[in-house]
Amino acid sequence: MKIEKVKVDQLIPYVNNSRTHSDEQIAQIAASIKEFGWTNPILVDGSYGIIAGHGRLKAARKLGMTEIPVIELSHLTENQKKALIIADNNLALNANWDAQLLKIELENLQSFDYNIDILGFSQEFLDELLNATEENEENKYTQKVDIPTYEPTEEKPLLEELYDDAKAMDLINSIQRSKLQEKEKQFLMTAASRHIVFNYEKIASFYAHSSKECQELMENNALVIIDFNKAIENGFVRLTEEINDMFDNSKNE
């Protein structure tokens, strides 16, 4: 492929181009061309019909340019040309940003008084990204904690109603029957306990009808949260995701 310069008036926009360009975006493209030069040639067919670069053509006209670089793709069939017109516009939309790395790069540019407005981001996006602060280390355990709430029933549930350990016991039994070393068995049996599914609605009722000693131990195990500060001190939030996963699994099974 060869890059050549052609007169702007020679280029023919595709009549069925479904990609739209606002005046604001054209101004952004023009600002980018003015700042960085022409870094992305327009793609054309054998008759200078535009395949990719309609926005760049409008920006060039806005800047008063008379010649612009193009790459001729005369080898494409008519169907390939139509498909590329769509794909060229759509494929870039499938990419995402790593917000943390983007913020670092933008802040670095700002430190050199570089005008980041020409990068094409909306002011709302920039404000949200650059003004976002990391969670305070002291308060991070109080953020985004989703704790289900239950009303205790009048009757105390049976212990066997509080949890389902059938899968865990099956695993434990198979581990005990194995020929593994005892330390390996102990490790795997501990891991098997993760498959115990707790019924927190029943646990709430059980707690309400239990002794003070039992209640305190349930709180210390984060089975029930009464004093939120105490739960944080005991590392409850470190367990939150696991507990919520167990809760979700109990609803799905």
Strand segment tally: 6
User: SSE string, helix = H, strand = E?
Assistant: EHEEHEHHHEHHEHHHH
Low-pLDDT stretches are: 134-138
| Total of DSSP H or I helical runs spanning 4+ residues | 11
Backbone shape: elongated
Terminal Cα span:
59 Å
Rg: 32 Å
* Biggest sheet record: 4 strands, mixed
Helical residues, percent: 40-55%
Structural class: alpha+beta
Mean pLDDT: 84
**Beta-strand content estimate:** 5-15%
**Domain tally:** 2
Strand order of the largest sheet: 1-4-2-3
List descriptors.
Conserved hypothetical protein from pyrococcus furiosus pfu- 392566-001, ParB domain; about 50% helix; about 10% strand
Compact overview of the structure:
This protein is 48% helix and 8% strand. The chain is α+β, with helices and mostly antiparallel strands. The protein has 2 domains: 3-94, Conserved hypothetical protein from pyrococcus furiosus pfu- 392566-001, ParB domain, CATH 3.90.1530; 143-252, no CATH class.
Describe the structure.
It is elongated and about 85 Å long. Helices cover 48% and strands 8% of the residues. It has 11 helices and 6 strands. α1 crosses α2 and α6 (166-177) runs antiparallel to α7 (182-192). With 253 residues, the protein is an alpha+beta fold. The two termini are 59 Å apart. A hairpin with a 5-residue loop joins β2 (42-44) and β3. The strands form 2 sheets. A 4-stranded mixed β-sheet has the order 1-4-2-3. Strands 5-6 form a two-stranded antiparallel ribbon. The model is unreliable at 134-138 (pLDDT under 50). It has helices at 23-36, 54-62, 78-90, 99-111, 123-130, 166-177, 182-192, 200-208, 212-220, 228-233, 236-252, and strands spanning 3-7, 42-44, 50-52, 67-72, 163-164, 197-198. It folds into 2 domains: 3-94, Conserved hypothetical protein from pyrococcus furiosus pfu- 392566-001, ParB domain, CATH 3.90.1530; 143-252, no CATH class.
